[in-house]
Write a structure and sequence with these properties.
The chain is α/β, with parallel strands linked by helices. The chain is built from nine helices and nine strands. The strands form two sheets. It has a seven-stranded parallel beta sheet with strand order 3-2-1-4-5-6-7, sandwiched between helices. Strands 8-9 form a two-stranded antiparallel sheet. α8 runs parallel beside α9.
Length: 337
């Protein structure tokens, strides 16, 4: 349903359904750019069902020629480009530094840093042709890796830190020209369809372990982006840090509740079992059948590194019996008979 209208165009690169729908609800014609036609079509259908207008454009946001073609189509519309979002990144999965190959590292760099560079150049060129004190808004999506590099996330952190530094430079150069450049750090898991589809049962379990309000809602993230766009130029915000208000509390409670309900964790295609008593650092795991293994419990207990290990010690140290049921794995503390 349309709200107060604003004439012009928006472009969202990398598929961001919530922010695309919100921009359209304010009257902008939204160009939704991504690699998968079916995903783009769903966003366009949702926008049009609410009375808005949108165009799906299939393109590789790391290809200079394809990005140029996208913005030639935008320029041909004859309307001003008011709002642009770069929302690209490679899947954020832990990889040991010495096992990180060139292709993996380059993929992160191309999607985040290089893709952001291509998008920013095209957006700024278009906005600089427009007149007015506020020529438009360009927002980059960041992450906690933009600020600090955690162990086994070197490729992701390097790419996101590079994107952040570039955003700062662009803001200093083109802010005085009337282009509002923002960088939004998403510090937490997003409770959206993209994460659920990509992570399957593991992602659903991870989101559930966060508890109530322990993950970020896409619609609320979109509102923060639009707030940046609506700011008056005398008080522009360059960087926002978005996170659940009670993330630490939910992490502790999730670990405690897991112990209390006998740690019945069903992970679908993933299975974890503890091989020996070990509380500090990463936890060794042993294989069960052909299951895919990880050497870190970060995705089972996202807060175990941040909270004193004794919080979940009673579960970790006593989990010794593994019961297989119906092709799945059930973890049961060893002190429960």
């Amino acid at each position: 349903m349309l709200q107060a209208t604003e004439s012009g165009l928006a472009v969202v690169l990398g598929v961001g359904a919530a922010v695309s729908v919100l921009a359209a609800s304010h009257g902008l014609h939204v160009f939704v750019v991504g690699r998968t036609q079916s995903k783009l079509d769903k966003i366009v259908e949702e926008i049009e069902a609410g009375g808005g207008a949108a165009t799906a454009v299939v393109a590789d946001c790391t290809d200079a020629d394809e990005i140029q073609a996208v913005f030639e189509q935008i320029a041909a519309s004859g309307q001003p480009l008011c709002f642009a979002v770069h929302n690209m990144a490679a899947p954020n999965m832990p990889t040991e530094f010495l096992k990180t190959d060139i292709e993996f590292f380059e993929t992160h760099w191309r999607r985040a840093t290089f893709g952001g560079f291509l998008a920013a150049q095209a957006v700024v060129k278009q906005m600089m042709k427009q007149k007015g004190m506020h020529r438009g808004t360009l927002i980059f999506t960041g992450a906690s890796g933009s600020l600090r590099g955690k162990a086994k996330f070197s490729a992701f952190a390097a790419a996101k830190a590079g994107l952040r530094a570039m955003a700062q430079s662009i803001a200093r150069e083109f802010g005085p020209e009337g282009i509002h450049v923002g960088h939004v750090i998403i510090d937490g898991i997003i409770d959206g369809q993209f994460v659920r589809d990509a992570g399957g049962n593991l992602a659903n379990m991870w989101i559930k372990s966060k508890g109530k309000d322990g993950s970020l809602k896409p619609d609320e993230i979109a509102k923060a982006y639009w707030m940046l766009h609506e700011q008056e130029r005398s008080a522009w915000t360059h960087e926002l840090d978005l996170r659940p208000y009670n993330e630490r509390k939910n992490r502790i409670n999730a670990a405690r509740s897991t112990c209390e309900r006998r740690a019945e964790i069903f992970l679908g295609d993933f299975a974890y079992a503890f091989s020996r008593r070990q509380v500090l650092g990463n936890l060794d795991v042993v294989a069960i059948g052909d299951c895919i293994l990880r050497d870190s419990m970060h995705y089972v207990f996202p807060g175990y590194r941040d909270d004193p290990p004794r919080r979940i010690h009673s579960f970790i140290a006593t989990t010794r019996r593994v019961r297989a049921r119906r092709g799945r794995t059930r973890l049961v503390p060893g002190n429960r008979r």
